[in-house]
Design goal:
Elements: E1 14-21, E2 25-29, H1 49-57, E3 67-71, E4 75-79, E5 83-91, E6 95-96, E7 99-100, E8 105-109, E9 114-117, E10 122-129, E11 166-170, E12 194-200, H2 209-217, E13 220-226, E14 230-234, E15 248-249, E16 254-256, E17 264-266, E18 273-274, E19 278-282, H3 284-290, E20 298-303, H4 306-318
Parallel strand pairs: 12-20
Antiparallel strand pairs: 1-4, 1-11, 2-3, 3-10, 4-9, 5-8, 5-10, 6-7, 6-9, 12-19, 13-14, 13-20, 14-17, 15-18, 16-17, 16-19
Length: 323
């Protein structure tokens, strides 16, 4: 087996986490599957790249190390060895043998202890990282789990975790000081309305003025039709002069508007082409924030210039990439 990233440490034994109880959705995710969209294969990867990056960073893992994305909670894991792990993202009321674990933190786990994720308290998705990343066999260059395409994940077939499955990682020897956890002031507050940066583009000029004003000056709510493929927003009806078009390639965060005028934000497991007009695209960090919104959560769209969005993302990556 091989991992999609590690932390450059030597030696150590393999450790297993056994699934005692499987929640609604828990998937292994590395940075994603790239260079294959020409084959109709989507990218996968963490829908909240910010929280995923922090979980790995807390253990000095290299960019791309596979972490576990846990949606809605309900997951219970039994350690079959001693290890240091890290969690970030949503507060899913994680406990270690019934003792609460602080979100955005590292913690020690010993053989026989139970790590459990409860119900969403703040946010929707938590990320669990292990030293060097969880081990799995790459499929098309990535271990990112995509259920619809049957690719990647812990089983190589895009499967979500099931009872009695195991997660394996290498308990590496420490090398260097581990990073500090982000302060409370620097952690996202998922309870607040989400303000999402959108780079205008594509067919935005084809929407009438009233629609454009409403799109960026009125709140939207996250619909219950939301998953790793995309999130539907409900609110003012948007009207576009383009009723049909030849399908185009679809990038991360594309905001498509179907005939009912209610936008759909496409995320990591999106289809590779689409034929609805688009307002533009959310930035990767805006997609990460949206991925933590429960149904009914209030969101606002805000325009951002492409150059500013690129600069923001470069600054984000510089905090996690070497050099």
């Amino acid at each position: 087996m091989s991992a999609a990233g590690g932390r450059g440490a030597s030696g150590g034994s393999r450790v297993q986490l056994r699934v005692e109880q499987a929640g609604p959705l828990a998937l292994l995710q590395d940075a994603g599957r790239f260079g294959v969209r020409r084959l109709g294969v989507t990218q996968g990867g963490p829908v909240d790249i910010h929280a995923w990056a922090w979980a790995n960073h807390l253990l000095n893992n290299q960019w791309g190390a596979a972490a576990l994305e846990i949606t809605f909670g309900g997951l219970s894991l039994i350690a079959e060895g001693d290890a240091q792990l890290a969690i970030s993202g949503a507060d899913l009321e994680a406990t270690l043998d019934d003792d609460p674990i602080e979100p955005w933190s590292r913690f020690e786990i010993q053989a026989g202890q139970r790590l459990r994720f409860g119900s969403p308290k703040d946010g929707l998705r938590a990320y669990l990282a292990a030293p060097g990343g969880f081990l799995a066999e790459p499929v098309l260059g990535s271990v990112a789990g995509v259920i619809r395409e049957g690719l990647g994940g812990h089983d190589g077939q895009g499967g979500k975790l099931q009872k009695d499955d195991t997660l394996i990682f290498q308990q590496c020897h420490e090398e260097g000081e581990l990073p500090q956890a982000p302060s409370a002031d620097n952690r996202p507050d998922y309870s607040q309305p989400a303000r999402l940066a959108l780079v205008p583009g594509a067919q935005i000029a084809e929407f009438d003025g009233t629609s454009l004003f409403a799109a960026f000056n009125r709140p939207w709510q996250v619909d219950d039709r939301a998953d790793r493929m995309g999130v539907r927003l409900t609110g003012p009806e948007l009207k576009c002069a383009v009723s049909s078009m030849i399908s185009e390639g679809i990038g991360l965060g594309a905001v498509q508007v179907p005939p009912d005028g209610q936008p759909i934000v496409l995320l990591n497991d999106r289809q590779t082409i689409g034929g609805y007009p688009r307002l533009g695209a959310l930035t990767p960090l805006a997609c990460a924030r949206l991925a933590q919104c429960l149904p009914g959560h209030e969101v606002w769209l805000q325009t951002q210039a492409l150059s500013a969005a690129q600069a923001d993302y470069r600054r984000f990556l510089q905090g996690f990439l070497p050099g």
